[in-house]
Structures are given as structure tokens and as C-alpha cells.
Amino acid sequence: MVNQNKWVYLRTSTEDQAPENQITGVETLSGKDYVLFIDKQSAWKDNKDRPDFERLKKEIKKAKGGDLYVWDWDRLFRNRRKLKEFFQFCAIYRCKIHSLRQDFYETFYEIPAPFNEIMQEIFLSLLGWMAEDESTKKSDRVKAAVRRTPGKATMSKSGKKWGRKAIKVDDNIIAAHKEGKNMREITEQVYYWDKNKHRKFVSLGYVHKTLAAFKQENTTAGDNA
Which CATH superfamily is domain 6-136 in? Predict the structure, then answer.
């Protein structure tokens, strides 16, 4: 018999990855009387639509008490800030999160009230601080490693180009713009080859950024003339 207040959430990283290994591991914690929610999507794309995850959140709200089992916290979110927010969401609706990989967290549920909530809040605050610190360090590393020249390729300080053959693609975008093509038409014309030798057309956002940098460069050059 299925327990409507016991949920298992799985997220596989690719369409080819089967969830059987996750299920087998999670069932050592949950047993077999659960409601299953599963999404197939890159684990790095936390912002992409996850229909089963959204359905799960609605069930947690409706039940107002239950247990959620996962293989690893990164199946919920890789971003620590978002993970903390989800833990807080579950706390509001009295849902306990159980993870096969992070089984140490079970000890928080064993601490007597009200100290269990105090310790959980301290841990989640630390988790949030770590997320902010990690984000700041990553931003500083990128800023230190990259230099940007408007209208040209993004370069590392050592002079290596970053990204997808930016100079050739940018030149093609600018040439199409000079021919009178609008941005939508440019996305249907300009392409590059990815590492797997698949042809990819440039995105509308990339076209906009390239043309904005090109216009800024020309404006600066005109001001200095």
C-alpha cells in the first residue's frame, strides 16, 4: 500500500541515464511504499522546468507533513542558496528530507525539540553562507582570469580565447547586421560548429550582446576621433 505522505524524488542527468541505481539506493531508506516523482534533465540546470518537482512541492504543501527521500541533495538543487530555500520550504510544511548520500543529516531529527530546530537553522545558515562565499570566489576568479574587448573575443590574461570561436562568429554577425538583417534573421543565418562537429545557430541573446558591443566600440572610437 502506497503512503501518500512519503515521497521519492529522482533526477537523472541525461536521457540515457536510467534511474534504477538511484531507486535501489533510496529504497534502503524509504522502503517501497512511496509516491515516485522523477525528472530527466541536466543536474546543472536548476532553473529549467521540472514538472514532477513542481508537482512534488504541491503535494508537500497539501499534505502538511511527510517524508521526502532523495539519492543526493544535488538531485534537488546544486545551487546551495536554492537548496537552503527548499529546506526552509519543507520545514514550513513539516516535511523531513532524507538523503542517502547525506545521511549525517538524520542526526538533526534525533535532537530533542526545540534544539533540533535551532541546530537545523544554524546548519542551513552555514549552508547559505557557503553558497554566497562560493559565488563570490567564483566571480572573483572569472574577473581575474578574463579580459574583454568590445566586439572581439573574450580572452584569458594569458591570451587564450574563451568560448566558441568568437572572432569568426562575431564577424559574421556584424557582417549580416551591415547587410540590413535584423537579429532574428541573423540567428537563422549565422552558425558555428560545436566540439562534436554539430552545426549550431547563434542565439538571439548572443547576437544582441555582440551588436551592442560593436555599437559601443564604434561610439567610443567616434568620441576619440
Answer: Resolvase, N-terminal catalytic domain (3.40.50.1390)
